[in-house]
Amino acid sequence: MSKPGTKLGIAALALAVGTAVAWFRTNSALGIPEDRTVFVLGFLLAAALGVGAFLRGTKWYGGIAALVGIGLGVFLPYTMYISPQQLGPDAIRVGDSIPAFTAVDEFGKAFDSESLQGHLVLIKFFRAHW
Question: What is the domain extent for residue 53?
Answer without folding.
Answer: 5-82
